Amino acid sequence: EQVIEHLADPAAVTALLVAHLKPGGIIKLSVPDSQGIVGLLSRWDWQGAYNRREQLMPVQPLEHINCFTSQSLDRFASRFGLRRFGLPLGLACAYPADWDSPKSVVKGLLRPIKRHLLKRGCHAYYQLV
Questions:
Q1: Which of 33, 28, 34, 31 is nearest to 84 (CA)?
Q2: What is the spatial distance between Cα 6 and Cα 20, in angstroms, rounded to a whole number?
Q3: Burial category of 57 from C-beta neighbours within 10 Å (exposed 0-12, middle 13-18, buried 19 and up)
Q4: Could you give the CA distance from residue 52 to residue 93 in angstroms, rounded to a whole number?
Q5: Cα–Cα distance for residue pair 7/22, rounded to 1 Å
Q6: pTM of the model
Q7: What is the pLDDT of residues 88-97, one digit of tens each?
Q8: What per-residue confidence (pLDDT) applies to 84?
Q9: DSSP 65-95
């Protein structure tokens, strides 16, 4: 969970982990989504940047040394014989995390659809094929 973006050699660590999976075994890869980060950085305004710091999460200096999008994470995983799969929606929605505000309720309902039905985003389960 939120590890491979910190590693100097994420491929070596992933290969080591995958070597311990049986066929059909499952691994979860989850990283900050860097979709659109190049455009964001090209128009970034440092005035008031502290209040928007979460937008820079994928490329936080001295912390995140790798950057992934949904597509690049899938390509990375495929190098190790891994294929993305989604949980059944009933299971994915069974344990909502945050119902404190209308916005969090909407996110809680839509996030499983994105992750498990559409198989998008940078929070994914992969199966060794």
A1: 28
A2: 21
A3: middle
A4: 29
A5: 24
A6: 0.78
A7: 888 887 776 6
A8: 95
A9: ---B-HHHHHHHHHTTTEEEE---HHHHTSS
82: CB partners within 8 A, 6+ apart? 18, 27, 126, 127, 128, 129
Tokens of 11: 């491929």
Spatial distance between the Cα atoms of 118 and 112, rounded to a whole number of angstroms: 9
pLDDT in tens, 61-93: 668 888 899 999 999 999 999 999 988 888 887
Q: Contact, 82 vs 73, CB < 8 A? A: no
Tokens read off for 73: 């994470």
pLDDT of amino acid 32: 87
Pick from 38, 113, 112, 120: nearest CA to 74: 120
Which DSSP state fits 49? G
Residue 119 near residue 85 (C-beta atoms within 8 A): yes
